[in-house]
Amino acid sequence: MFSEITGTSTFNLLGKGLEVSALRNRAIANNIANVNTPRFKRQIITFEDEMAKVFDGKVELVGKRLDDRHIPIEQINYMDVRPTTITDRAHVMRNDKNNVDIDVEMSDLAKNTMTYQVTSSRLAALFADINDVITRGGRA
Amino acid sequence: MGMFHTIDVSASGLTAERLRMDVISNNIANVNTTRTEDGGPFRRQLCIFQARKPMASFPLMERRKPQVVGNGVRVTTIMSDQAPFKLIYDPNHPDADKDGYVRMPNINIVHEMVDMITATRAYEGNVSCINASKDLFNSALGIGARR
Amino acid sequence: MRVLDRNPFADFPAKLRPSQTNAKEQWFQFAEKIQGAVDEVDGLDKESQKLTQDAVLGRIENLHDVMIAAEKARTAMNLTLEVRGKVIEAYKEVMRMQF
Questions:
Q1: Domain ranges of chain A
Q2: Which end of chain A is more exposed for a tag (fewer CB within 10 A), N or C?
Q3: ipTM above 0.85, yes or no
Q4: Nearest to A135 among C33, C37, C82 (CB)
Q5: Which residue of chain A has the CA closest to C63?
Q6: C-beta neighbour count of C74 within 10 angstroms
Q7: Spans of all domains in chain C
């Protein structure tokens, strides 16, 4: 019964958004902590592009099964999309081969923080709305 | 790893940068030191930073495993810079050798100042990260709030 | 035309038509649904308690997991209590009927 309340796509997307933003916060913190480490390469988290494609149903990944034991590849469910950690091996100018640009990291930090705040605020409002409806919806 | 792992990562950065500042301050303070306990002029010291690996990672499998976010930074050693000492011609100096040259520490003040600025900026960056993490936690706590 | 010559539900779409089972079966179905909901609430509540304990013991990765689980449990409990209130109200209403 409750999966219809808490299993809507809005709810699921908000939950995933929080997970991704928290992971991104961790990656940015690690990048900034290692801004002076020689040969360190920054890490980024990708998620939104892949999720947008899967959510709109545009991923046409059809696998050929040549054998019965092959696992079928079908349409991906949007709930299965996971964030990916990618090491950015961009060419660097610095002598110590470190490619962390602290200004880029700080701006990413600000963006990510605000994204998390938006997401959690929407989720809070969603819960409050549901509870409002439950409590007051049954009264005349 | 705990929900404050991100703050641990930033804290490791703070520790490392502060240690670096200590080393830089020491270098600047000793820029004219011609006598040390081991004899000879003061040698410039520098910190070697190394990224901490996520727990239980095997180097052979690194490329094939899905990537994991790293674990912060650590100062592995404080090394002496093996660059040659500066030779200053000053025959009246008590530590001058027979040719009148004094060996001075291999410290370049400008270089140290640049390092100091870098360390300060990195320290401030890590402080911003900790504040951002605190913001995230407070936002999450607001999920249960009622209007 | 007499009032009940036509089956008044004949034109309704299939979903809205009342099923032809008798009252006892309908009551059992309803009771099963309620029981299922109570079990779900219990599950959500246990999950929320487990995550809260993990939070205190330092075992969780993300704080928002704890908050979301707590809110889900609270919402589910709220809904169940409201439904329970309505059912009891309905029962009292029926019991008050004078025949």
A1: 3-47+82-136
A2: C
A3: no
A4: C82
A5: A22
A6: 16
A7: 23-96
